[in-house]
Amino acid sequence: MNNIHPIFDTIVSREAKEQLLQQKAVVIWMVGLSGSGKSTLAKSLEKALHQQGRLTQLLDGDNLRTGINNNLGFSESDRLENIRRASEVAKLFLNCGVVTICSFISPTYEIRELAKGIVGEENFLEVYINAPFEVCEQRDVKGLYKKARNGEIRNFTGLDAPFEEPQNPSLELKTDILSFEESQTRLIDFVISKINKN
């Protein structure tokens, strides 16, 4: 580490970039079981913000696992590393003034605290996309629950790997109760209230 000389304090500031973009940068960290609606809501949020002239970046768990995280599995240590890398990428976009939408299962308190610590608590908006395991299994949009039940997938969150519910999220959307349109409206309104420049 002796040969590393960061230049963070000499590059163009986040504040200058936010001024250019006329928005306040935040990281929206969307948490929930597979099939809860994270990716669908994240995509709809990104489209809505784009239509309003906001610069965004959507980081999705599956997308990152095809690229920067393609060497990671689903062991506890690999899940931690997956989130560590994702958080560092999110922080880079944050520092560019970009509204960064992250869609990751993030199953444990430890993992979410790791992400929050990297991004910075004041920049981190945890959104819990809450749907019970049984409802997500019925939806099974990717066919993963069936594979997990058949033993084809190990360490499946909610089945044989833990999912610890967020205790104090910035926003909670119960997608088994709310319609998609209701969830979408609440999410968009919440995020807009956080990114408007005063």
Descriptive tags:
alpha/beta, 43% helix, 8 helices, Rossmann fold, 198 residues, 13% strand, 5 strands, globular
Helix and strand arrangement:
Blueprint: H1 14-21, E1 27-31, H2 38-51, E2 56-60, H3 61-65, H4 76-94, E3 99-103, H5 109-119, E4 124-130, H6 133-139, H7 144-149, E5 171-174, H8 180-195
Parallel strand pairs: 1-3, 1-4, 2-3, 4-5
Helix pairs in contact: 2-8, 4-5
Summarize the structure in short.
The chain has about 200 residues and is an alpha/beta fold. The chain has eight helices and five strands, in the order αβαβααβαβααβα.
Which fold name corresponds to the CATH topology? Rossmann fold
Give the termini distance in whole angstroms.
Answer: 40 Å
Rg, Cα atoms, Å? 17 Å
Number of helices: 8
Shape verdict: globular
Number of strands: 5
Approximate helicity band: 40-55%
State the strand order across the main sheet. 2-3-1-4-5
Spans with pLDDT under 50 lasting ≥5 residues? none
Mean pLDDT: 91
**Can you identify the CATH class?**
Alpha Beta
Major sheet size, sense and barrel closure: 5 strands, parallel
Classify the secondary structure makeup into a structural class.
Answer: alpha/beta
Number of folding domains?
A: 1
- By CATH, the superfamily comes out as P-loop containing nucleotide triphosphate hydrolases
The helix-strand sequence is HEHEHHEHEHHEH
Strand content: 5-15%
CATH architecture: 3-Layer(aba) Sandwich
